[in-house]
Amino acid sequence: MEIMGKSTGTSTVKRGLAKMLKGGVIMDVVNSEQAKIAEESGAVAVMALERVPYDIRHQGGVARMSDPEIIINIQQVVSIPVMAKARIGHITEARILEALNVDFIDESEVLTPADEIYHILKNDFKVPFVCGACNLGEALRRIGEGASMIRTKGEAGTGDIVEAVRHIRKVNEDILRVINATYMELMTIAKELGAPYELVLQVKKLGHLPVVNFAAGGVATPADAALMMELGCDGVFVGSGIFKSDNPLKRAKAIVEAVVHYKDGFVLAEISKGLGVAMKGQSIAEMNDEVRLAKRGW
Amino acid sequence: MKIGVLALQGAVSEHCKVLNKLGHEAINIVSQHDLFGIDGLIIPGGESSTIGNLLVRYCLLNPIIELGQNGLPIFGTCAGLILLSKYIEKSNQHRLGLMDTHVIRNAFGRQFSCFEVNMPIPILGSIPYNTVFIRAPYIDKVHEGVSVLLSYENKVIFAEQNNFLVTAFHPELTDDMRIHEYFIQKVVSR
Fold first, then answer.
1. Residues on chain B touching A12 (C-beta within 8 angstroms)
2. How much is the average pLDDT of B146-158?
3. What average pLDDT does the structure give for chain A?
4. Do B112 and A8 touch (CB under 8 A)?
């Protein structure tokens, strides 16, 4: 029998990579030294950035896609997948990142949005995308556009986990509502969520999102990472939490282990010992609405 | 049958689902005592370097090597294929090293080049199998005792040696359960 032609960039292949990252930690890095530390600590992927969210927050200005040179340098030193961020709606930044052969694009609210109305049509790309979502409606809108992975939209760069918790709780609550609804109720629920009906139907049948869902934003300690797993996340992004702390390698290793053994209090107690000072952080309750990143995107 | 699925990182639940559909019990393996009483073991896809590190940190590496040497059937997909191989090109990462194979990691390129393709697999009959490759490795050299079950573009992507079975692609990402069934046969006939 003849072998049929191969197809690249299919939804199975794109969502498949996200599945391979499950139970893992994806770390923000700004140079090849940090990337190597991340890989050594057991990261499943790195996010190549020019500035970590903590610095973006404190230095201000427009935050854009990283300089391709930073991404290429990082690609050269690690064997794990390399991700990079594009601004919300910035089709061209995404195209550049695809040409650079990054393994995943994060259409991210951490960068300054390029479009106030539309997100990128991610189905047009062969490289998979991850997008943030505060609730099920937002998650399904992004999946409808072609996102292969979802993450919470916690407040990056704050070291405060409360927003990420709110988002995963909300997604879970919305999913439960869909599961418990009758088929007759689903169209109205789709309308209320602002989500594509077909995807709501899919959630009802599957009992969960059709793609992998990670925690992101505000993870600073192994306990934070374990909490997000406890709440049902498939894995964790850690941004400023690692390289803005006292002992990045030790903390990174501890967070990796916390994600595996998130239910085991004894292991968590052991790995949480003597990690040095965590990133200083900033309580979200003290922040004005206009500096909140979760308000970006819709 | 009781089949362990190494659950340190990666596509664990996908394998468990297939095992359950086939009527077998799937046991998540995260520490040494989980290995007790399993009839077979699956090492899933994920990041092989991460899984290797965690195997060492949680004292699972040597117990699994020992079980493998004593005949426990082990099935590795993608990262699992890498971890089961004795030789890994340009890498000193931790491994089980139970098979006499030489592998190249990320050998089909980065994510942009990942693909799926339908092809017949002789040992599974004439119906084509949908093989899904994700930053996949391949075996570039096999030593004595290893049987090649399938090659694609002259690259070995499905192989067997005694109680070990490996694929460079991901049978757990499709609805076709024939490769899992083939592995279960190995477990049953042990």
1. 116, 132, 173-174
2. 96
3. 94
4. yes
Length reported for chain B: 190
Residue A126 bears catalytic tag: no
* A128 interface with B at CB cutoff 8 Å: yes
Name the residue ranges covered by the structural domains of chain B: 2-105+138-189
Cβ neighbours for B166, distance < 8 A, ≥ 6 positions apart: B75, B76, B77, B80, B81, B84, B85, B99, B101, B139, B158, B159, B160
Q: Is B78 a catalytic residue?
A: yes
Query: Distance, in angstroms, between A102 CA and closest chain B CA?
Result: 7
**Residue A26 near residue A234, CB atoms below 8 Å:** no
Residue A15 backbone zone (phi > 0: left; psi -120 to 50: alpha; other: beta)? alpha
pLDDT in tens, B52-99: 999 999 999 999 999 999 999 999 999 999 999 999 999 999 999 999
> In this structure, which topology does domain B2-105+138-189 adopt according to CATH?
Rossmann fold (3.40.50)
- Higher pLDDT, residue A3 or A207: A207
Pick A229 or B112 by higher pLDDT.
A229
- Residue A288 has which token pair? 């004005």
Closest CA to A153 of A161, A163, A143: A163
Task: Say if B92 is an interface residue toward chain A (CB within 8 Å).
Answer: no
Q: Find the catalytic residue in B16, B24, B160, B172.
A: B172
Count of other CB atoms within 10 angstroms of residue A7: 12
What is the structure's pLDDT at A248? 94
CB contact under 8 A, B50 and A17: no
* Residue of chain B with shortest Cα separation from A267: B58
| CB contact (8 A) between residue B174 and residue A12 | yes
* Residues of chain A contacting B134 with CB distance shorter than 8 Å: 13, 16-17, 20
The confidence score (pLDDT) of residue A54 equals: 86
Token code pair at residue A8: 């690249």
Cα separation of B156 and B165, whole Å? 13
User: Is the CB of residue A200 less than 8 Å from the CB of residue A190?
Assistant: yes
Q: Is A232 on the interface with B (CB under 8 A)?
A: no
The pair phi, psi for residue A45, each rounded to 5°, is -165, 160
